[in-house]
Amino acid sequence: MRSKRREEQPTEMQIAPMADIGFLLLCFFIVSAKPPRHEADMSMTLPGSVSDEVSVDLPEEVRVAIRPDGAVEVNEAILGQPGDQTLRNLKEMLIRFRESADNNHTLSLVTLDAANQTTHQRIVDVLNVCAQAQIKGVTLNSDEEEESAD
Fold first, then answer.
1. Can you give the pTM of this predicted structure?
2. Are 87 and 77 in contact (CB under 8 A)?
3. pLDDT in tens, 133-149
C-alpha cells in the first residue's frame, strides 16, 4: 500500500479581518469608557460668565473709634463727647444703620476700635448703645492687632 502524499500548501493568514475586529474593539472601548469621576466634576468658571441674578450678601459694617480722651467717632465725625454717657447721636445713627441693613437683608456689623488708653467704662457705654440699637454683631479691635500687622 502506497500512501498518497498530499502536497502541503503554505498556510496563509488573512490580516484584513483581524484589523477590522481590532478597530471594532477599539471603537467599542472608546464609546463605553467613562471618564474618572474627578475629571467629570471639574467645573470651570471664566471671568464674566457669572449671571447677574447671583447676589453676593456682603455685611454692612460701621467702624466706631474711641479716642484716648473718650470721644467717640464714626467715619471721622465725632458723635459722642468724652463726658456724654448716653451717646444719643451715636444711638440714632446706629438705629438708622440697623434699619438700613435690615431693609437690604444684610447683617449689620459694628467694629469697635478702642485706643489702649480708653477706659473700660467708655467701651461699655458704646456696647450699651449698640445693644439699645439692637445690633448683635459687635467686634472689638485693639491697637495690638494693627501693630503686629505692620
1. 0.56
2. no
3. 998 889 888 655 444 44
Closest alpha carbon to 91 in 122, 127, 141? 127
Residue 100's nearest CA partner among 129, 139, 135 is 135
For the chain, which domains are there?
61-144 (3.30.420)
Task: Please give the grid coordinates belonging to residue 36.
Answer: 474618572
65-95 core/surface letters (b: 16 or more CB in 10 A; e: else): bbbeebbbbbeeeebbeeeeeebebbbebbe
**For residues 134 and 88, is the Cβ–Cβ distance under 8 A?**
no
Instruction: Kindly state the cell numbers that stand for 38.
Output: 474627578
Across-strand partners of 62?
A: 110
